[in-house]
Amino acid sequence: LQGRLDQAVDLYERSLDIDRDFAPAHNNLGLVLAAQGRTTAAIQHYQRAIELGPSDANYHVNLANAFMEQQDVEQAIMQYKKGLSIDSQNAHGHYNIALALDQLDRKNQAIHHYQQAISANPDYARAHHNLALILEATGEFEQAMQHFRHALRITPNMKETRLNMGMLLVRRGQFQDAIAELDGLVAMASKWEPGLRLLSWAVIHQPSPNGSDITRAVMLAQQAVELATTDKAMSLFNLADVYAAAGQIEASLDAARASQDAINESTPQILRGHIQQHITSLTEFPIQNPDIEKP
How many CB atoms lie within 10 A of CB 243? Predict the structure, then answer.
């Protein structure tokens, strides 16, 4: 791939040697440079393309994307707006400015632009997914569910969408629906740790799980731990929670301590607190089996 990108750079540079004022060549060279990770050089060519062809919305969107790559979100938003003022039906422009606005926690504006992206392209699955996430965060659960389902109708194999829909169903107490959705996810991606982890949690925490449910939840949580790489502490803590819910207190404590040992610099503070609280609750206030009455 790198060799092809180098050839493309050479081709566009030769084109510009012939005509330094050919805006499409500057834009296309910018795209290739961006693909190589040479963002600063890409920005220079996008800017030159805009100077030569200011009415092309894609030039502004490409420049905005490059600013996003440099974490210059405000500059990116400015360019997205310029592009959208030229072409209000640019679905990618609406989608990308929504991403930028969401980064700045401007959720209402982000919602508007995701809706505009969908209006321009009703089959924009990723726009439906991201819009659903924001709607869920703002408490619009029914609308969120509609957009999750719409995304899956367009692209049924979107793992993250199935996972987030399962999480939303769990939050709403719809455990059977959540388990059915997550079963479908695990059938599709049997080696994906987040899906196994959430399914194990839903199975053990559903109202009145039976013996086979408990056995299955433990097995799923153990499989998730085996597959975990970067999120080992989270997966081990989930196993500790499942063991505790199953009444296997010693196993829960062992898993919680292993989770604590797996903490690294990327482990969220809230998870660290939960792990410590779990260990403390099991060591200072141990759960004991009730005495069995003898005849």
Answer: 24
**Measured distance CA(67)–CA(46) in Å, rounded:** 11
Q: Give CB contacts under 8 A, 24+ apart, made by 148-152.
A: 150/125, 151/125, 151/126
Q: CA separation (Å) from 218 to 104, 114, 247, 277?
A: 40, 39, 11, 21
- Alpha-carbon separation of residue 174 from 33, 115, 170, 177, 202 (angstroms): 48, 27, 6, 6, 10
Express each pLDDT in 158-192 by its tens digit: 999 999 999 999 999 999 999 999 999 999 999 99
**Alpha helices per DSSP H over the chain:** 2-18, 23-35, 39-52, 57-69, 73-86, 91-103, 107-120, 125-137, 141-154, 159-171, 175-188, 193-205, 211-227, 232-245, 249-261, 269-284
pLDDT greater than 50 at residue 233: yes
Residue 95 has, within 13 A of its CA and on its CB side, a CA count of: 18
